[in-house]
């Protein structure tokens, strides 16, 4: 049967605890067993759709930690939740939403979260998934050896005002150099996902990443052009959450299946069922 909405879930069963790293403290929510995955929420925060993805990862055999650096956990995305969150993030020194060639304090925090999770879970390393505002944070976190797999879904920071920001990789040059070094040595692989007509996550950023990371960076682009066969809007944005339908053959569902298989491969989980 065709699905008409994105999968959702609640915070039921998730263990909440504050975590401090790099001088920053945020609540983190944890559930599951097996190798670790850090799932960074998208704007406006840990929505029911983000939790739907988190629950799917738990069901696939991962220990999932979802940090809550912004927004109200569990609250649905509405104009009343999105706009205040965007306003706060635009001026926050922790995120540096418009800065070029920037090292963002939040990524140091996420590296600490990843290192803590890696120390408590099997496999010797973790995966990190970022989406939308946090998409590029997953790659910036991969400067550390504990991150073996990074997934950047519709990375949108710095916000795409002008050609330089559209092509910026979302991290500082030293961070990008380190990520590229790890990719070249085979220590790190990454996936990037976006919709073809996404006005916020532009193809120029993906070209920048692909040029440096080469075959270690797999690009998945979903067709959102006018008249596309799936019926995606030209403004379609959230590949793994809002736009996903659990209908066989749905492009976003196939993208999620590929992400799960990728994480299983990189984190050495037996089997490949996604």
Automatic annotation (TrEMBL):
UniProt keyword annotation of Hydrolase present: yes
One MF annotation (Gene Ontology) recorded for this entry: hydrolase activity
Keywords: Hydrolase
InterPro entries given in the database record: AB_hydrolase_fold (IPR029058), Dienelactn_hydro (IPR002925)
The organism's place on the tree of life at top rank: Bacteria
Every Dienelactone hydrolase domain range: 34-153
Name of the protein in question: Dienelactone hydrolase
